[in-house]
Amino acid sequence: MGKVILEMKNITKTFPGVKALDNVNFQVEEGEIHALVGENGAGKSTLMNVLSGIYPFGSYEGDIVYNGEVCQFQKITDSEAKGIVIIHQELALVPQMSIGENMFLGNERGKKNAINWNETYSEADKYLKMVGLSESSRVLIKDIGTGKQQLVEIAKALAKNAKLLILDEPTSSLNETDSRALLDLMLEFKKQGMTMIIITHKLNEVVYVADKITVVRDGSTVETLDCHTMEINEDRIIRGMVGREITDRFPKRSNVEIGEVNMEVKDWTVYHPVYAERKVVDGINMNVKKGEVVGIYGLMGAGRTELAMSIFGKSYGTGISGTLYLNGQEVNLKNPREAIEAKLAYVTEDRKGNGLVLSNSIRVNTSLANMEGVSDRGIIDMDKEYQVAVEYKDKLKTKTPSVEQNVGNLSGGNQQKVLLAKWMFTDPDILILDEPTRGIDVGAKYEIYCIINDLVKAGKSVVMISSELPEVIGMSDRIYIMNEGKFVGEMKADEATQENIMACILQSGRGE
Amino acid sequence: MTKYMDVIKKNAMLIVLVLVYIFFTAMTGGSMFSPMNFNALITQNAYVFILATGMLMCMLTGGNIDLSCGSFVCIMGAAGGVFMVIQEYSTGLSVFLMLVVGIIYGCVLGYLVAYVNIPPWIATLAGYLAFRGWGTAILSDNSSTGSISPMPESFLKLFSGKVFETGINQFNIVCFVAGVIASVIVVVTSLMSRANKVKKGYEAESMTALVIKCVLSVAAILLFAYKLALAGGIPTVLIWVIVIVLIYSFITSKTTLGRYFYTIGGNAEATRLSGVDTRKIMFFAYLNMAVLTVISSYIVVARFQAANSTAGNYYEMDAIAACVVGGVSAYGGSGTVFGMVVGATLIGVINLGMSLMGVNADWQKIVKGGVLLGAVVFDILATKKNATK
Q: Which site among A309, A314, A360 would you substitute to test the B interface, given the most B Cβ atoms closer than 10 Å to its Cβ?
């Protein structure tokens, strides 16, 4: 047993309406690599944000004990001063600046107001050597690949005198070789006495580097596995991650008849809008039947949203190829307007980012996608618009004093209902719901599920994109599993289990 | 108590306008309240109302502005001068040709902003520089004094002067009757709209509030009509301004087109994914701006009865200031035509009042800058308070 360097005791963190962390206890020993695993939204990143001071002391409950002293970090620099450095999933580098400039950004070398460039670059080169990069520190970030950028991030952390290094999904954007190199570097640092916490979805990496594994589920730590005293394999970790019993969290659907195929996608391929050589969606074939709920499961970055948006009037991506059939007819939807007219609806993933106009009222948001429905020759019938908004408010049980309320003032669950109302008012045949229950509480989730059931009962088809396994299994009739732009599996709901879905993704990842 | 506070907050700028007017009336020994100065307030500021209407539409789409409109007024004036005075085209043809040039510029600008994605302030900065120079060059090529005049009588009649003009010290009946008719229309439409709401069981304002609102509006309209009647009648430009303000009021509040301007400003991506062609709306905003700029150039040329190279100096700033003081969000998505009118009037009143008091031009600018900053700070603090509620 080594010395405990970090202990987080009874950490509880609530966001409006959601308890993100619930009495979490987490211990890290000096000189170990500790893996933190769990599903999306389980609370791993939140826990690390608490640790690094992104959520300041006072915004959570519980204690952080580091090196034997209780810490009250107000901001990131406080935790960095103690040697706790976090490397985020999204690289935080300025592309137009050199490696050296980036490395000492906010931590500049030299006198108070004058940067000593010679010192900056020679120091930078020293740290680059430590992470095994042969590039000069004067090279611009944009001129090196993502793998090397990730190493620069690590060198940057070392330059801050890191004692405890936290890596949040460090390999998510790296290929196999770069990932392996990074993991070996971690093992090398361990020999030199560095303590590290790694958050990752890739369980083979966990097995490769970790000394201990802590599993987080629904905002609490479930178990900590010691890789030296126990036999650890991926199946064992998966069991920990998804080990809960599914109780009656999903309303039953009865007497819904599944009819003919009404949407079919063949060989659908989409390229990234900026990096036009990168395939984001790769040869997808799928179909949806009338009255059916089809789930698409995949981890973040699997290409699910990109698939949905490219189908919805080519609103994402370039070089889209493949064919789309609606009710047996081949169609070519060039923009969202045509998609709406073809009775397709895409309920966006990000309510605030691209779903709702927060500064406008429920009334305005409800009618936005179907202004023809409330206007005559371009002139809005305010009475009708009001009635429509009230009708959907009642139908979906949106909690609000009035439909004139600005959407920005509603809770996440109620915002989601307004978003659903907007798309239901376009009277679609097929609704693609992208993460319909993200960030909303259990009660509101249940209500959203009921709405989904009502929709299919009315003969509509629902495609539900989700990264919550229980939800996909509990709600879908059929499930497609997506990884790295491809469908890697298709299952009936009754044959799907959390274990075999996860296994499906892991196998596809290893196959490369 | 909070109800009264809400009313005050909602009409803060209107109240400020009245207070500022009273202040200047006191400071100028009543001169501010004279019929002549009521008339001056309109004729001197007509261009602001029209340009600010176009600017409002641009700003709604996300705080976008048009820096080129002042310079465009200058070059349009020069073009008008060449058409009417040098080439001696008919007024109708000249007005039409100016409009065509405006539409061409609007299309080019709209294309650059909406389809090439050039940030509006940069795209219009080019016009700001080029049109001032080009306009001046046209004027000095065609006239030794750098100014073209006199404009034909028919043009002046269309865009300046008064309708049914009567002499000084004579009461203009037509003008006052028009005021009475306007009052009746305001009262009847307010009552009808409320009755309709009550009938359908919607939220409606209380009868007392409505009566107070009607009494105040009627009083304001009649006061205005009375003063103008004493100053010789309705200024022609007032009709232009009223027509434009009413049209855009209708567009912004009652049409789907107007609705999209607001939702794009609020969330462009959500609007695009709702099937709205957001680029078309952006294109229209700048085309519309150019057309309104041409209309205001008619008024400016007619007012000075000449085309000269200083015409339109800082007009873009006046238009932006009117919008911002009138509560149009600098980030887009909110603001009304009515608010903009109040803002433009407030700035007009401050200008006129200070001129009457003999405040020198430098200080006038300092005061205007302060008012602008104050209005924005007030706006941001007010929204912040609402958000935390």
A: A360
